[in-house]
Amino acid sequence: MCGIVGAVAQRNVSPILLEGLKRLEYRGYDSAGLAVIDQAKSLQRIRVQGKVGALLKKHQATPLNGNTGIAHTRWATHGKPSTNNAHPHICRDDQVALVHNGIIENHEQLREQQGASGFKFNSETDTETVVNGIYVALQTNPDLLHATFATIKQLQGAYALGVINKSEPGRLIAAKNGSPLVIGVGIGEYFIASDVFALLPVTQQFIFLEEGDIADIRCTDLTIYNAELKIVERPLNVLELTPDVADKAGYKHHMLKEIFFQPNAIAELLENRISDGQVISSEFGHGADAIFAQVHSLKIVACGTSYHAGLIAAHWMEEIAQISCQIEIASEYRYRKSVVPDNTLFVSISQSGETADTLAALQQAKKSGFLSTLAICNVAESSLTRASDLVFLTHAGPEIGVASTKAFTTQLVALFLLVIAIGKHNGLSNKQENMFVKQLESLPARVNQLLLHKDDIETMAKEFADKHHALFLGRGSFLPVAMEGALKLKEISYIHAEAYAAGELKHGPLALIDDDMPVIAVAPNNNLLEKLKSNLQEVKARGGKLYLFADETSAVEPAEGVYVININVVCDFMAPILYTIPLQLLAYHVAVIKGADIDQPRNLAKSVTVE
Ligand code: M6R
After folding, report:
1. Is the pTM of this model over 0.85?
2. Domains (ranges, CATH) in the chain?
């Protein structure tokens, strides 16, 4: 992961770089650094262990001033979070500074070679081998473009790089291979960053580099080369995005704001996607309907929360559209040989569109004979959307909290639209479609109703603050809801949480139950309710404490050791979306009580751009 930003301008670039880092902090936040070259051709650097906020403080105390600079916020892969391991890395003689996002897979071999030729290493990172490589190459050809090109030829792995050389002020070299990198075009100035969001305060014009590209950037001149060092043209994109999305709008945390934004997010997703009780299939991309007419099966691939959305969608797809649907974790799919049945649509789901495993799975799918590829994604100009045949944007707006909330519920709504759009070609009647569309339209109001339970859930959360483990139970399409609830709790409160299909309890996990193991279950009034109630009795009989979210009509009564929040959800196909909301709030309040870092939980990053 990690976020990189760079600039060449006729003004001091430090404030631009620091603002860019704040906006990239979702990509990692365990250390940060900034390096600039000033008029006197001196290379200056500051680095800190910790978040960008700590770098800002250090910069206030020791401001850097220069027209050319690079900066980095890190998510540690090679080497612990520390100041020494923080980027930018600088080579011998303070000649070159470099920031890197990605992983250099042959770094050990390079380290050995460089060590043998006398290099001393100042960090445990894979990145330091790259800056040393450039230093060596500069001794033969003192031109930063050629030195960087010669060095990246020796690299295996993924990288987005920003490189500056103190002998060449006003010049920035950027290279991309497998990690995201965009060039921002200003007036008489250029920028680079891991995403456009970092640069919105300074430009709305962007050039997306392609794999293998290397860019030679000066204030008034930009030349892009491909992997063979041939000059190439890459299109200029003018985006209409506003820079001020990072505001918490009065909420204590981004996560809470994003939970409460879900009614709006769902409404915005549905806008222009349904009309007269029908789903507009062309919203999935040009020619989507003709492709959907040929679909015999689906393969969904995703990671984390997006994977849970896929699991729920697989239930819907088989039950409503009666189309076979397989779902797999992207990091597993990408490394195995699989059989692709004829007329199978490949669907990737990702909030960021930059998740390395999901992108690699898509690349694998493109070689595997799928009918077509569809991305369900929240970021329009992401690597995933650019590489897919069909795209459906979830329009949830930027999600800042590391724990995914509004991205998940909007993914589910998008997937439901997909189920209808495909189901129409497989016997789903107009009447059924109209009924589902009505249910979808009712979602924002129903989610709003659920948010009213915030205070009850906050009270329930107090019961969890001293717990070390928790078990989540669900059945059918509510099992992935339980999985998502468990992921949310462990991710932000650091309580170990597992989800089980309730029917599996007696096959092992029941052994864990005692009065110190809270069991959280979602109990919708559906065809599996009675089965679930029997499973809950098994827990109760062994002294386990139950925390239930149930329909009023589920007739689940509170008793000693049984806490019930009736959430009054009509149990239709939308219910998994709705049952997710109280579990998000539960995780949030437990984490608040525990004093955890809600929006930036330890060890994590929002966008996982490394394997
Ligand atoms: O951007 P993506 O949806 O591809 O991200 C996938 C996962 O990394 C992500 O959903 C992660 O599990 C969330 N932080 C969970 O809240």
Report:
1. no
2. 3-238 (3.60.20.10), 254-448 (3.40.50.10490), 454-594 (3.40.50.10490)
